[in-house]
Design a protein that fits this description.
single chain, alpha/beta, 5-stranded parallel sheet
């Protein structure tokens, strides 16, 4: 039996995810409710997608928001709090790629509310990049034709020198990355846990049980909402067990990150051959959002593998980045 009620209420940040949220919502029940928050900035829903959601049995509400900086976000969160007060045993889902909602989710999770934020996979960054590259290539081709007659030997030599300097800088950066990789502390991972409780204890090694919001988020992303919440309350409400798990916490940040990624790869029956590339992406300064996380993974590991690892790890992106 679920720890929570049967009704699910979805809160849609349409400014952030356009009409892609429709593909994210699973099978709808008659008791469920969808609240779509929109402004003039929101993208219109395509007829095809609207027909699909309109044919569902859920209660669909369109809520026009006042405009202003973060205005939609504040109105969505206000309505969320009102709904929680009316039905605290219901399930609440915020659909948005905006990580700012995670603080709201963690606030209610600690109070025992079944709530989560679900991100939406937007247009593949690789496809968008390909479109831009194709257009840029065409423009560059026309420009080169008109400029070719005017280019002098001296200019060509200058460009070659600049290219060589760039290549030298890239080589130095690569050497620095290799040196940094060689300095990474040895992993503390020994073997794959044999049961669910083994995974629970493993998570306690790399996610502090003192940070209840992060701890709950990792558990539910690994096991699912119901099972993850069950283990969350088991640890949270048992002081002796909580203290025991707390004592196993890894002090080294690099080793904690390595351990956490290994947990999710092992649970999903994936090997560790791409582990170092995944860790490099997570630590990359350019990895500052979910979209860039997806982009860097697919660039480093190719489209199919990058998407696979993204889907495994996207739910704990904030914890991986230490946010």
């Amino acid at each position: 039996m679920s720890l929570f009620g049967n009704k699910t209420i979805y809160f849609i940040d349409s400014e952030n995810v356009n009409d892609n949220w429709i593909d994210t919502i699973p099978q709808i029940k008659k008791t469920d409710e969808i609240k779509v928050f929109y402004t003039e900035k929101s993208t219109n829903v395509s007829y095809e997608k609207f027909s699909r959601i309109a044919e569902g049995e859920a209660n669909l509400n369109w809520i026009k928001c006042f405009t202003g900086q973060n205005a939609l976000d504040f109105q969505l969160v206000t309505d969320l709090g009102y709904c929680v007060a009316k039905g605290a045993k219901d399930t609440f889902v915020i659909i948005s790629n905006d990580k700012g909602y995670d603080a709201v989710v963690n606030y209610w999770v600690v109070k025992g509310v079944n709530i989560s934020r679900v991100g939406v996979e937007m247009e593949s960054p690789k496809k968008a990049k390909k479109k831009i590259a194709t257009k840029a290539k065409a423009v560059k081709k026309v420009a080169l034709k008109s400029k070719k007659k005017e280019t002098t030997n001296q200019e060509i030599k200058k460009q070659d020198t600049k290219k060589q300097d760039t290549e030298k800088q890239d080589t130095k950066k690569q050497e620095a990355k290799s040196k940094e990789a060689s300095n990474i502390p040895k992993t503390l991972w020994k073997k794959k846990p044999s049961n669910e409780m083994g995974y629970v204890e493993a998570i306690g090694r790399c996610v502090s049980v003192k940070k209840l919001g992060d701890y709950h988020m990792v558990l539910t992303n690994l096991f699912g909402q119901e099972v993850g919440t069950k283990y969350y309350h088991m640890i949270k409400d048992d002081k002796e067990l909580k203290d025991k798990v707390s004592k196993t916490y890894i002090t080294n940040e690099e080793q904690r990150l390595d351990y956490l990624v290994r947990i999710f790869l092992a649970f999903n029956d994936k090997g560790f051959k791409d582990l170092q590339k995944i860790l490099n992406v997570i630590k990359d300064k350019k990895c500052d959002s979910l979209n860039n996380f997806y982009k860097l993974l697919t660039e480093s590991l190719k489209e199919e593998n990058g998407r696979m690892y993204y889907n495994i790890l996207k739910g704990i992106y904030g914890v991986l980045k230490g946010e």
